[in-house]
Amino acid sequence: MNKTFQIIQRPLLTEKITNLAELNNQYAFEIVKNINKIEIKKAIEKRFNVTVLSVRTMLVRGKKRKMGRFEGKRAQWKKAIVSLKEGDTIDFVEGSD
After folding, report:
1. Residue 9 covered by a domain
2. 77 is in which domain, residue-wise?
3. For residue 10, which of 26, 27, 31 has the smallest C-alpha distance?
4. Tens of pLDDT along 62-93?
5. If you average pLDDT over residues 18-26, what whole number do you get?
6. What pLDDT, on the 0 to 100 scale, is given for residue 6?
């Protein structure tokens, strides 16, 4: 499998991220933890055919969860917020009317 498709695990589609996309042309993705900003930029540009201006990354801590008397923790994951050049967009919902 192509490394580009392994770096980007999924796009994040929340209300806050949708507002960022409309106002600032920024999109968010869940990515592999050990990837740097340069590799993220190349992967986004190659996969979506856009021009990336900047990449911001952050580690999101896993939350503690309880189910009855059992306790566990969700895994940590990495989030990347990508700013695109004016005029470039990424359409996540394909096939909508």
Report:
1. yes
2. 3-84
3. 31
4. 999 999 999 999 999 999 999 999 999 998 76
5. 93
6. 87
* Three-state SS sequence of 26-57: EEEEEECCCCCHHHHHHHHHHHHCCCEEEEEE
End-to-end CA distance of the chain: 31
Answer whether residue 95 shows pLDDT above 60: no
Query: For the chain, how many structural domains are there in total?
Result: 1
- DSSP letters, 52-72, are EEEEEEEEEPPPEEEETTEEE
Q: What share of the chain is helix, strand, coil (3-state, %, to 5)?
A: 30, 35, 35
Query: Is 32 within a domain?
Result: yes
Closest Cα to residue 44, out of 61, 56, 34?
A: 56
- Is 95 within the bounds of a domain? no
Residue 64's CATH number:
3.30.70.330
Its pTM stands at: 0.84
Residue 51 lies in a domain: yes
